[in-house]
Amino acid sequence: MRIAIADDDSEIIEFLTRIVEGQGHVAVGYSDGTALTSALLRDTFDLVILDWNMPGKTGIQILEWMQDAVDDCPPVIMMTSRTAKQDISDALNAGADDYVTKPEDPDVIAARINAVLRRNSGSSAMEPSVEYGDYKLDRIEQKVHHDGKEIALTAKEFELTDLMFRNRDRTLSRRYIMETVWRTNAHLTTRTLDMHVSRVRSKLSLSPENGFRIFTVFGYGYRLETLGNGK
Amino acid sequence: MKLRRRLGIEWAGVAILSSLVVALLIHWNSLSRVDHLLYDQLSGLERPEASSEVLIIGVDEDSLAQFGKWPWSRDRHAELFRRLEAGNPKAIAFDIILSERGDPKNDQLLSDAMARNPGLFLPLHFVFPGRDGAAFDVKEPLPQFRQVAAGVGHVNLVFDDDGVVRRAALCFAGEGERPQNWPHLMEQLYRHLRDGRPSPAFQRLDRCDDPLLMPWSERNSFAAISYSSIANGEVPPAFLEDKVLLIGATASGLGDRHNVPLNDGGSMDGVEIMANLLGALERDDFVAPLAFWQQLALSLAPLWILLAGFWRWRPRSTIFISIGLIAMVLGATALLLAFRLWFAPGAALVGLALVYPVWGWRRLQATSDFMDEELENFRASKVDIPVVARPAGPVDVVTGQAEELTHAISHMRDLRRFISDALSNLPDPMFITDLEGRVKFVNKLAQIGFEPAGKDQELALDDMLARFVTSGDLPEVREYLAMDRQSQELDYVEFTSLNDEVFAMRRAQILSDDGDLRGHIHYLADITQVANAAEEREEVLQLLSHDMRAPQAAILALLDSTAPSDSARRIEEHARRTLALADNFVGLARIKSSEFAGEDILLSDLVVEASDSLWPLAEARKIKCRVEDKSDGAFIVGEPSSLHRSFVNLIDNAIKYSPDKGAINIGLRRIDLDKQPFVSIEISDQGPGVSPDMIGQLFERFASDDSQAQGQVKGSGLGLSFVAAVIERHGGSVRAENLRNGGARFTVLLPVAPDIAE
Fold it and tell me: What are the entry keywords (chain B) (predicted)?
């Protein structure tokens, strides 16, 4: 896979290049927005990692430009030092596939890159049974086993669990989750979704000790993150 | 009651009443005296020429002087007829009663003389009441005269109620068992002259005794000679040839004189009246009165013109218009009369003359009542500025009211001046618009770069905005002004003027006394300095948030590629501390400058995630972080980012002071304080606790109990003050205490969000 990395800081480009190459991909670095946009017109990439603040064009401007100008637009991960909740949901709503706040752990970044690439390769066939770390999901019986112990879940809880595991390390919007699990978002308050996520978290003991954690992206949605041995 | 409605009712009353009065006056003919007077005057404007064919032979004073006292012996008349016979006149009406017997010899003489005059007509008369209960008896001439005459006719006069003869009945209609019509003597004469054909006027009559208004020739305009002149043979016979002779009494002593409608008010001999009737028959110029409905329509028309005019014309012009209408009615009457039509104008004139004062009275009454009411209201309303005492003095009620009104108006003027002065002297620009969006008043707008176009020119709000708001901000300002803002009266809009100054514009409603919306008042506050300060602060926050974080992120990225070493670990530690410092500082600054924007948060998950996010840190030192959740799924209303950061700070603090392989317990439970539900979050560590002299100021800015920190860990002091600020912002509290068996405990209390219907 070819991955374009745009950042005005050469240290960050090197850092990301190491992560990308460590996963067996090819990385091409650009130090400003203009260089990236001209490259995008001539060249094909499987993923773009985009810094928000760059000379030339800002990340958001490039993101919007890409959706108009680039055919078969590759997925984009926004990566910046900005932390405001509004910035994060703005980027995601503007069409970014994911968002990483600098600084972030190399493993986490690698997992997020994988999640985006995995989704775009469309490879996740629905196996009858699938294992994620110590968790085993039985899609026919709609049961989850953790360390060999069966965990009782309701149908919606299982669907939510399955959805989050299938999209691990990917940020899912509330709307996406509601429409996928409940098939609708009418008559559904955000409290309902919060309560279900909370129950899945506690029933499955989704905690860093067990290699997973659920992360709330405020103002946008949820992400199931894999940690350490959870890959 | 509103004046408009009251006046409408009064007007309708006046209109109906006056119309009714006019209609009844016409119906009852109550104003005949007035109408007669007018008729007499108007008909005098044009009088017909007397016919030269007619010759009156009068028994005058000279004749009486010559032939002695009346009645004369009938041979005197026989002598006359013999003279007339020689002249061969066309016709003769002999208006002298011959119904009683006289001396037989003389009667015979007369009868013989009459017989030799072919066109001779004699009168008959009626005696009221008749014998044997009959309405009247007919007194015909004696048969011997009757037989020699060409015909007889009645000579009754028709008197109007003022005793004046204006009309004539062309026949006398009998009643009862033997109805019979006796044509008038002159009608008989007319028929004789026209080969027996009745007059056109007679033919037109539905009832032959309907009296007809006749025009009158001037008095004495008919040729007349004395009876004695004829009898004495002083007149040559040729003079009488082809004349129509009317013979009757003209001497004043003989009593046959009647009042006629000539302007001089005098009387006229019966025989001259007959001459006039004959003239009218020949000219066929009788005057036809209008029918009732025509009278009514013509009388009501000017009345209603005036009534309609009451709404449009000023009272001063109305009086002249009333007079003009009266003149028009008279003119129309005269004009109609020229066409032989009689319109009795009395009712119309009375209507016109009456309706004006009646309306004036009702209008004054309504206005007076209204003024009373309004002045009462005005007195009841609040008076805001000093009032000058009004002059007192004995005046009539309406004058008094008018004076009070003047006083009230001058008070209003003072108030207006007061308001205008107050608005003009306001330190900030403002303007007032009406409901159509027109600018009615501006104040000091020059200072924001707006030059009023001119005093008289009314600007549309939209045009005005375009003159001082930068085009970029215009849509937002318009959107604000277009909002229906019943609910959010406190909102405002910010814009930059063309002078590069920043204003906050706020709109307030102007309400009438009844609470109706009348317009808006727009206040502008110059917030340039505030806006600039906010902008500068935002720039600083951006610098800290991004530009200070970015190099730290680069340091950490760089370290990732270097071999692990003690100094690398320490550099990473410092970089992370700098990051935390920047985040806390920016967070603290932001929450102090932004408004609270809470959302539903499941508190237990927020705390768990804060704990999870610190897991790598805890794991590195084998510290166990346990969350015990008894919050029963409590939701709170909060700002997730700052709350998350607060719990991260608290747990990070606990990790910082915990011994390696220590345990941190986080307990959530619901409690009630003053019957209000709260969630309490307790974070306990097994560290050394807080030193007693620090415990009171732990949450103040830049306070840090570094003396107790483990190894290399150091706090910036901003972490806990950020926590305190955030929790306070959420309506909660945070406190720190030392546990008996060692370690510190931080307790956060946050109010539970109200339940919402799922």
Answer: Kinase, Membrane, Transferase, Transmembrane, Transmembrane helix
